[in-house]
């Protein structure tokens, strides 16, 4: 199997590359990434010698149709897994346009190239598939009860989720209109190694280690449904292998947490690991809430569990401890990431306001 994995140097994309090459010993992956501030080639520096032989990196943009066409043809790609995206809600509030360029137009570019390369005289070549990695955020926000199913109407509330929802609609439209073999996965909040430090869990770990404020939006009682990134990767693998063409699959681990409780949990684990008394709840600082902040997400993943036999394997307790340990053990990675563009952005938006 030959995969084109776009956004391979981001958080989930890089975890997926490791996971897939380890699990499928014959598989070959062409990884494409534009290397934005969130993309980091270092994320793939731990590939084994065998994995390196089966992985090739290409720096490029999913909006570059000619390049995508060239790669599909040169490597005779079977499956495209599209992780490439602008992914941070806060950034989408400050600069929506970039989000539309990559998350909408980039996906349309991929779809048009796929249509050109994989459809011959009106017939789709057997065994090819386009997988769009989407998010539960396309469904909007929930009240205190209920969960998102695949039938929940799409109702995005941030420029980020609106761009992801638009891409989902395009992907489904290409399936309906042209019969394109596609699947969409909509997963809840991921955590794990290699996550960029602007996202909640790594941000809190890294700030706490430096005794910096732990900024919490509003009352901190927003609820997110957390899943370990490797459980997400296993779900994507199953969707590639067995997902029914044209279907959407929700992915979530039934693990709802208020943001503030996660932060307290991180403090507790960090204190245990480091014995540092200065890591304590006095570091928590409530800041002005994000505009349009979704209150609660919760994912019903019955469909993927019943139809594809997926279920989450990593408990939050273990996954979070392992993740914190990973950040403690990878200080060099963190230092590189936290310099430059990220530091400027963080200081502008979280420190100077
Ligand atoms: P990320 O921001 O860590 O990684 C995105 C990657 O895409 C980066 O390596 C970046 O350089 C690359 N990229 C951006 N624009 C590009 C372009 N135009 N062409 C090629 N590469 C480009 O994001 P992530 O957290 O790994 O998320 C990956 C995907 O999963 C996204 O589509 C996101 O919407 C989705 N998702 C994320 C989560 C989560 O909790 N992180 C949950 C559900 C779904």
Summed up:
This protein is α/β, with parallel strands linked by helices and 353 residues long. It is 45% helix and 17% strand. The strands form four sheets. A seven-stranded parallel beta sheet has the order 3-2-1-4-7-8-12, sandwiched between helices.
Which keywords apply here?
353 residues; alpha/beta; Rossmann fold; three-stranded mixed beta sheet; 13 helices; binds nicotinamide-adenine-dinucleotide; NAD(P)-bd_dom_sf; dTDP_Gluc_deHydtase; dTDP-glucose 4,6-dehydratase activity
Tell me what you see in this structure.
- This protein has a domain at 2-194 and 228-254 and 293-314: 3-Layer(aba) Sandwich (Rossmann fold).
- Helix content is 45%, strand content 17%.
- The chain contains 13 helices and 14 strands.
- It has helices at 11-23, 49-53, 65-75, 89-94, 96-118, 159-178, 200-209, 229-242, 259-274, 302-308, 316-329, 331-338, 341-351; strands at residues 2-6, 28-33, 55-59, 79-82, 119-120, 123-124, 129-135, 182-187, 189-191, 214-217, 223-228, 248-251, 256-258, 284-287.
- Strands 3-2-1-4-7-8-12 form a seven-stranded parallel β-sheet, with helices on both faces.
- Helix 2 (49-53) links the parallel strand 2 (28-33) and strand 3 (55-59).
- Helix 1 (11-23) packs across helix 8 (229-242), helix 7 packs across helix 9 and helix 9 packs across helix 11 (316-329).
- The chain is globular.
- The N and C termini lie far apart (49 Å).
- The structure holds nicotinamide-adenine-dinucleotide.
């Amino acid at each position: 199997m030959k995969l084109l994995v776009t956004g391979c140097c981001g958080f989930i994309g890089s975890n997926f590359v490791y996971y897939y090459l380890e699990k499928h010993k014959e598989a070959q992956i062409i990884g494409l990434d534009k290397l934005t501030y969130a993309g980091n080639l270092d994320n793939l520096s731990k590939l084994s010698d065998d994995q390196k032989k089966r992985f090739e990196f290409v720096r490029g943009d999913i909006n570059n149709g000619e390049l995508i066409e060239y790669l599909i043809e040169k490597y005779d790609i079977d499956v495209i897994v599209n992780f490439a995206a602008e992914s941070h809600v806060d950034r989408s509030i400050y600069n929506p346009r970039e989000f539309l360029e990559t998350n909408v137009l980039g996906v349309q570019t991929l779809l048009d190239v796929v249509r050109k390369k994989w459809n011959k005289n009106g017939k789709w070549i057997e065994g090819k598939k386009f997988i769009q990695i989407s998010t539960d955020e396309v469904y909007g926000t929930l009240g205190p009860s209920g969960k998102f199913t695949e039938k929940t109407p799409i109702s995005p509330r941030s420029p980020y989720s609106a761009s992801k929802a638009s891409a989902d609609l395009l992907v489904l439209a290409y399936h309906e209109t042209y019969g394109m073999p596609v699947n969409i996965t909509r997963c809840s909040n991921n955590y794990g190694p290699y996550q960029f430090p602007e996202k909640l869990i790594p941000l809190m770990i890294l700030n706490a280690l430096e005794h910096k404020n732990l900024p919490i939006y509003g009352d901190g009682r927003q609820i997110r449904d957390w899943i370990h990134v490797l459980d997400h990767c296993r779900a994507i693998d199953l969707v590639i292998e067995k997902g029914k063409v044209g279907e959407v699959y929700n992915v979530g681990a039934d693990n709802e947490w208020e943001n503030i409780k996660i932060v307290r949990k991180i403090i507790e684990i960090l204190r245990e690991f480091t014995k540092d008394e200065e890591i304590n709840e006095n570091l928590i600082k409530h800041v002005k809430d994000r505009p349009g902040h979704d209150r609660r997400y919760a994912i019903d993943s019955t469909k993927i569990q019943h139809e594809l036999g997926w279920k989450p394997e990593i408990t939050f307790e273990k996954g979070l401890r392992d993740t914190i340990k990973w950040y403690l053990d990878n200080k060099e990675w963190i230092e590189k990431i936290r310099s430059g563009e990220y530091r400027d952005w963080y200081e502008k938006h979280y420190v100077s306001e």
